[in-house]
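Fold it.
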Amino acid sequence: MLIASLSVHEAAHAWAAYRLGDRTAEHLGRLSLNPAVHIDPVGTLLFPLISILTGLPLIGWAKPVPVDTRFLKHPTRDFALIAAAGPASNVLMAIAGAILLFVIPGVAPGDIVGRAVMTPLFQFLDMFVVINVLLALFNMVPVPPLDGGNVLLGVLPPAAARIIELMRPYGFMILYALMLTGALSTLLGPVAYFLLTLLGVR
């Protein structure tokens, strides 16, 4: 589920860049839902596996989609839109999963075969919604290199944008500090619970 969600996320970045005039990602084969072109061996496979086995709060990621702002008509605004496309795709996937949970009929009492088939499906869709809500929220944290930081660069005045840009070399250290101190879960937890409740999965 994580690999599929990250693949759609990165493909959304590539599609937005393509629609806004930059075909760099397309030429590199990144305008695709094929996970093979988006997987980062460390960020998409190794780190999530270590996190699952140890419980450590490790960050997972896919290969970033390259964007050449020279081909964008409105570089600052369009770069922000491209950055926002990834989290937006996760929101849409979460909504789609929630709709499927709502429309798929429940299992009648005593239907052992139906329960054996449908329970894993319901669990899969539930986790699919959760993962995509968390991916959307995490990526919109306003710290570069996350999408939220890149969106801020496109909407803030130049002076404030320069301050955000100065954070970029320290972005991962800031994120780990937020995670290890519990600040990130404190900030995102209530928002995630609200959204999941709104989608009917909590």
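DSSP finds nine helices and no strands in the chain.
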